[in-house]
Write a structure and sequence with these properties.
The structure holds three protein chains of three kinds. Chain A is globular and about 80 Å long. Chain A is about 60% helix and about 0% strand. In chain A, helix 3 packs across helix 8, helix 11 packs antiparallel against helix 13 and helix 14 packs antiparallel against helix 16. Chain A contains 16 helices and four strands. Chain B is elongated and about 60 Å long. By secondary structure, chain B is mainly alpha-helical. By secondary structure, chain C is mostly helical. The radius of gyration of chain C is 21 Å and the shape is flat. The termini of chain C are far apart. The chains are: A mainly alpha, B mainly alpha, C mainly alpha. Chains B and C meet through helix 1, helix 2 and helix 6 of B and helix 1, helix 2, helix 3 and helix 5 of C.
Chain lengths: ~600, ~190, ~120
Amino acid sequence: MDKVATSGAAAHGHAHEHTHEHHELGFWRKYVFSQDHKVIGIQYAVTGLVFLFFGFTLMMIMRWSMAYPIRPIPLIGSLLGQTRAPGGIMLPEFYNQLGAMHGTIMVFLGVVPLAVGGFGNFVVPLQIGAPDMAFPKLNMASYWVYFLGGVTMFVSFFVPGGAAMSGWTSYAPLSVIAQPGQLGQTLWLVGMVFLITSSLLGSVNFIVTIVQLRAKGLSWMRLPFFVWAQLVTAFLLLLAFPPLEAAGVLQLMDRVAGTSFFMPSGLVVGNVPVQVSGGGNPLMWQHLFWFLAHPEVYVLVLPAMGIVGEIIANNTRKPLWGYRTLVYAVAFLGFMSFIVWAHHMFMTGMGTTISAFFQTTTMIISIPSVIILTALLLSLWGASIRFTTPMLFALAFLPMFAIGGLTGLPLGLAPSDIPLHDTYYVIGHFHYVVAPGTIFALFAGIYYWFPKATGRKMNDVLGAIHFWGSFVCINIVFMPMFIQGLAGMNRRMYDGGLLYANNQGLPLQLNVVIGMAVWTLSLFQIPFIINFFASMKWGKKVSDNPWDATTLEWSAPSPPGHGNFLTEPVVYRGPYEYSVPGAAKDFSPQFEPERA
Amino acid sequence: MEIPYIVDARPDTGLHNCKLGIWLFLASEVMLFGALFSTYIILRTGAVEWPFGELNVWLGMANTFILIGSSVTMVMAWASLKLNDFGKHRLYLIGTFVLAGIFLVNKYFEYADHVTRGELPSHSTFLAVYYTMTGLHGLHIVGGMVVMAYLLGPGAKMWKTRPDQFSNRIEATGLYWHFVDLVWIFLFPVLYLL
Amino acid sequence: MHSDAAEVKKTIRTYLMVGAALFVGTVITVAANQIHFAVPLAITAALVIASIKGSMVAAVFMHLSHEKRWIYGSLVLTVVFFIVLMMLPVLTTADHIGTPIHAPSALSGAEGGHEGH
């Protein structure tokens, strides 16, 4: 609103009690239906974290059924009810619900809202020196539409017949004929329409904000890498999500109005012909689903790479190695991600010509990923690294993402994908990308920007416990999956493949190891939860720029007031001018003018 | 700090926020309808036979005329604002709103006719495509009407206080409306004629 | 762009002419449809006319004939992915392993009731 007249000198002034008050908003407008990007960002982040925890809980229950099949689930088994786990023993149908919803919740309700909605909303306007997002009301709407989508998904567990159970990919025709007359899958589709709408509103807002609201002097090649990553992510969401929205509507028609978009002619289920008009194409669902869901992988990964880039530059006290290359690689990665999707569909009977096309594009897209990872790795060379908590997570991201990426190569080539398809190898591969990869980067981001959001630092001892415990456990969870997958163990088996010949011996025993590691991993999240809440109240108070960082968000007060900056920010240099020869300090912030 | 470039264009992009925003939204809409058209192509090329002449071409043509007419009145509503003629602007905008309403009424009769003859979406792939695509397009018409109703009602007050921002809003509404018209220009031959 | 009144007055004539052209285009499409061409020709003709009409709406009503760099850029990107979305699914169904179970031309007479209706 009103620009505050401060004594021009201190752009990064310590004026915590800035006289920035406006007509005081009531509680509801200030914290619930807020239009302030910081509040919305925190709302997104907290909701995303809650859903991450919820999705993780689903997995902990599933892992019991896999490690100890047909044995009652301890503690909560009796609470699940007769329709889910009679006598505490999990029904296969319930396992399928948990599996489908674990994937959906982790991707669409957990990681994306935290990475894009949370960090994007909170950090991007601050890093580009904007007072808010370009469309604050739209921003609020996109959070609440997301929230509605989350509620819809959550409620679906409690309707008769339970939640969706056709996998997070909801492949037709299974998803159309599953749970006939029941609401589970239908609610999943409605929930997805909400989530997609929310993402669309958000992505329009991000692009306009980044293009239009950059501060004076903040030219494109001075943008922090995180902002670039968010810009590319926003374009992915904008152009890849609508086809899934269309597909969701079509599947909704198939389920509710009895159409046959994805229902082929002559479909027979349980010796009974399915009564539909037929003529549909089930593969079209896969095309439309993966048209989104492959770019979605990069929606999950790019913001994580952005966060890691920021933290590595800050904690190595060096400029990022090859900033321009990173920017071009990210843009190219985003573009290529639209034309690789059918590598998820090598098993659908595609011919060799079109398979060759998608294999080629898949090999090409691995190049920019490797460039980004290499540039981040080379940034460490010769640095005197500060092993702060965010840096621990950011450093772990590099090898974890590398394992995830490299194990993906055999899946991108049809000959090796065909035996590996739908095995635990695939699960291991993409979880390495998303869990110890992206989610570690998101934890890094939380530790890194927590002081900006609250004015206090999170505790480093608890942070170290959280990091080392999680790092060890999560590798014990996912590394054995490669062994199981190579042994031929299929995914989606509620008893862990008890009755299958190729699962006997080591693969089955590994189920117990993985289960133990999952439950231990959950214990190591407790220090984080304690740290998160306790640090808000008792954390060490820190200055506006506790990490001696160079980007614009650190020139605003912590926490920033409404309108963010005390004076209009002006940018004088590139984003990562650390250890500039001849400078007085080892960091030259973007917002500090050239000294004489 | 106020959010900049709500009214004026940012010098290096030449755009105000709202204009870029609505175009990006339309880009996503292109992909939405693109997916539907792509599904249509797949279903049609995979079909053994495809019905011809199942829809009433004359009703469809009438609706095409109505939408093209509403596009003209919409662009005139914006041009009148640029000429500072608020009265004429309202007249044109009301005209657009009414034409949109007539389109929907027409559509209703068309649907009702099919339903009474037992031609439901579940009847054939063609009818499924027809109902879904025109239905989604119809929802876009309704959405446009809601925005127009706002700009005719409570939203019109902005002309007194911030005329430039108001005409930006009319421009954005117009862009959306022309897009809805544009989709229909393709839907009409694809569904009614081919 | 269109801020000064004189220029707007000039463009109004254009708007009305484009409106008229769109009406004429619609009449031509429907008229051509009444003469039953062979299917491929009819599809081509109808889509060509629709594309011309669509381009007129986009260029004139939506002012795309003179827009800014960022809008062109975003739309070019959209058009590229739109084409990808149109082409690749069809290409994957066109290129399949082995011979298709039903070649519509060969079997549609014999097994017409099997697939569609």
